[in-house]
Write a structure and sequence with these properties.
13 helices; 41% helix; alpha/beta; 12 strands
Length: 366
């Protein structure tokens, strides 16, 4: 009964005063340190105790003072994501999918996201400001380029960061990526194994590392399958991949003998389908075969292409959540940076013989 009276003593009328962590500690007969660590998800607090603390905090309306926490822990519970100041970037559905995963995961761990943009020649100034005033705990970097200057800056600053993608220094930082090389190696050799000898690959912007890896994967598959290099034609788009599908597909279909099209995004593949129809080509795996990366863009209905296209599926939202998980590993658990590969799965078009996908690759990304 005494504990019931204690509990009711904390349920004060609105406006009397805020419940403090000291009040909560006295109510539960636990130390302030235990209360704090339980509410911040530290693993050295037992599950039963953590649940008891969280339920009591919710019941009495306790809210941690973030400014006080920052003074004690020297942490802000926020991550920064610096974007290039590009109007097209902010309507790119690939970016929106990643951001959706990032925001949900950050919210689930009680972190805020500081999203800002800067002109290309001012991005380092934005990073430097956050580093100098210690206003964030870590950073997200996306679309890395070879020798990326943002990565160079953050490595020199010795601040936690995670990269969506990889470049040549990937062993020095945390990253989240898919197997870009392997996915397009497999897509290309699948087409060759099914009789296609002239393939056009509509790639992403080869300014960025992901598109370079995809090109290398496709080229390696052509080489390993014993075809001449000119069996593969690569047409590159400009980032973001939003409006290149139709025009580049028209160019590809004007090439002599092309019987297979590969796309770096379903967005371009869907746009390209209109050019295929205009050319009077039929996507049946014989006259024309289509294979594409599918990032599971939620706004895009691709159901009507099931059975016609071969899809390599991987979730950008899952990648966004993994970016936050990696930052939390580094910032809260003090773990060294690590890489995460988001799995991909093949869904082959009807009539496509997928047996070759079960055989080992002869080449790997170097």
């Amino acid at each position: 009964m005494a504990k019931d009276r204690k509990t009711s003593s904390l349920t004060r009328p609105t406006g009397v005063r805020s419940v403090t962590i000291k009040d909560l500690a006295a109510e539960l007969e636990l130390s302030i340190t235990t209360i704090s660590r339980a509410l911040n998800g530290y693993t050295d607090v037992g599950e039963k105790t953590r649940k008891r603390v969280e339920e009591a905090a919710q019941r009495v309306g306790y809210r941690p003072n973030r400014n006080a926490q920052r003074l004690v822990t020297q942490r802000t519970h926020s991550f920064a994501w610096v974007q290039a100041d590009n109007d097209r970037k902010f309507v790119d559905p690939h970016f929106v999918e990643v951001m959706s995963g990032v925001l949900r995961a950050a919210r689930g761990h009680n972190y805020d996201l500081v999203l800002t943009s800067a002109l290309p020649d001012q991005r380092m100034t934005a990073y430097d400001r956050y580093v100098r005033d210690n206003s964030v705990d870590g950073f997200i970097v996306d679309l890395p380029q070879p020798g990326d200057p943002c990565i160079s800056f953050l490595l020199d600053a010795h601040r936690p960061f995670v990269v969506h993608g990889r470049e040549e220094r990937a062993d020095q930082y945390g990253w989240v990526d898919i197997d870009n090389f392997g996915n397009f190696y497999d897509l290309t050799r699948l087409m060759i194994a099914n009789g296609h000898r002239h393939i056009a690959f509509i790639n992403g912007d080869e300014t960025y590392s992901f598109a370079i890896a995809r090109r290398k994967g496709a080229e390696a598959a052509v080489r390993d399958m014993g075809l001449a290099p000119d069996s593969l034609t690569i047409l590159s788009s400009v980032h973001p991949m939003t409006d290149a599908g139709f025009q580049l597909t028209e160019q590809a279909l004007n090439l002599p003998g092309v019987s297979a099209l590969l796309y770096s995004s379903t967005l371009m593949a869907v746009e390209g389908y209109a050019a295929i129809a205009r050319a009077g080509r039929e996507v049946d795996g014989v006259d024309l075969a289509v294979g594409t990366m599918d990032d599971e863009l939620h706004f895009l209905d691709i159901g009507r292409f099931t059975g016609q296209f071969t899809f390599v599926r991987s979730s950008l939202r899952e990648a966004g959540a993994a970016l936050i998980a990696e930052l939390i590993r580094e910032c809260e658990d003090g773990q060294p940076p690590a890489g995460t590969i988001i799995p991909s799965s093949f869904q082959c078009a009807a009539g496509m013989d997928a047996a070759i996908l079960a055989t080992p690759r002869l080449s790997a990304e170097t």
